[in-house]
Here is the input.
Amino acid sequence: MATRQRAGGRPRDGSAARSEEDARRSRGQGTVGKTIRQPANLSKRVLIVEDHSLNMKLFRVLLYSRGYEMIETKDGHAGLDLARADDPDLIIMDIQLPDISGLEIIRALKGDDRTRDIPIVAITAAMPEEETNIRAAGADAFLRKPISGAEFLAIVRSLLHEDDPGG
Ligand code: MN
Here is the structure.
């Protein structure tokens, strides 16, 4: 495994201090279905299904900053399984996935008594027409890429009924 270096040939600042887990995560490895816990959080678990590593990183940073527990996968089918098995409080669902459309996953989850009550935020890079399909599939909210962090967190908190401005 190559070590990432700066132009001057020095290792990145702080690299020695990072845990191996952080290093693996930043390389996008070993994160399928991985649960990342943040002790400050009192409870809420968010499943993120997103194949784009930069968007995943953005969601992770935003959710981590608020103390949410996260379950991450880049794989649509794994996302469906994790939603059923782990009973998350909220799902962030990318629509454009390589193995299955996020729309299909949303339809499956919303058509199942066990999972229909889990709120889903659809993430899409598609055109406005797609919004109709996303709503029809049963998504509770959607966000278009590029993602606004403030808007993302506002939607997350709203769907988790945490939209008290003081909280
Ligand atoms: Mn995607």
